[in-house]
Amino acid sequence: MDNYVTEKAAIEIIREMIGKLPEINIDKGLATCVDDEEFYIELFTDFVNLDIKEQLVRFMNADDHDNYCIRIHGFKNNAYSVGATALGDLSYEMERISREALTEELKNLQTSLFEQFDRICLIFNQIAQG
Predict the structure, then answer these.
(1) What's the predicted TM-score (pTM) here?
(2) What torsion, rounded to 10 degrees, do the Cα atoms 47, 25, 29, 3 define?
(3) Average pLDDT for residues 50-76, to the nearest whole number?
(4) Which residues contact 81 (CB under 8 A, 6 or more apart)?
(5) Could you tell me how far CA 70 lies from the centroid of its own chain?
(6) Cβ contact 13:128 at 8 Å
(7) CA proximity to 5, closest of 45, 49, 51, 52
(8) N-to-C CA span, the chain
(9) Alpha carbon of residue 36 to chain centroid
(10) Which of 1, 73, 90, 104 has the CA that lies 20 to 30 A from 57?
């Protein structure tokens, strides 16, 4: 967090996020952080640094639907906390499916989740570091 703050103030990062990440409900994310912009950027930085992709791939490859379900549940909560509502909703659907098994439908949803998450991470990192 400190390296981002020294390069850009949190409010500047948030202003850019509004224009470049319309899928993020920043008001909702800020509400989670009691409208503390610096804390929100810190929370968002932690979010984009989650190793969710590696974990889900590992559980998928091991056909471990229990741990997959647990991990996607946690990610869902992280997504909602930062205002990534669409990712949270997609994660909820994946959690629901993974309670029983790791299906082909779930693999397709996982691909979509990774694409959306990668886009958010890329744009946020460009904003925060640029």
Answers:
(1) 0.91
(2) 50
(3) 98
(4) 29, 32, 43, 47
(5) 16
(6) yes
(7) 45
(8) 14
(9) 19
(10) 1
Find tokens 């909703």 and name the residue. 89
- What does the pLDDT look like over 73-107, one tens digit per residue? 999 999 999 999 999 999 999 999 999 999 999 99
Rounded Cα distance between 69 and 91, Å, is 10
Task: Tokens 């029983």: give the residue.
Answer: 100
CB 50 within 8 A of CB 72: no
DSSP secondary structure code for residue 8 in this structure: S
Extract the tokens encoding 100. 């029983």
Are the C-beta atoms of residues 128 and 7 closer than 8 Å to each other?
Answer: yes
What's the number of CA atoms in the CB half-sphere (13 Å) around residue 96? 8
Q: How many CA atoms lie within 13 A of 122 on its CB side?
A: 6
Q: Write the burial class of residue 100 (CB in 10 Å: 0-12 exposed, 13-18 middle, 19+ buried).
A: exposed
Rounded Cα distance, 48 and 121, in Å = 5
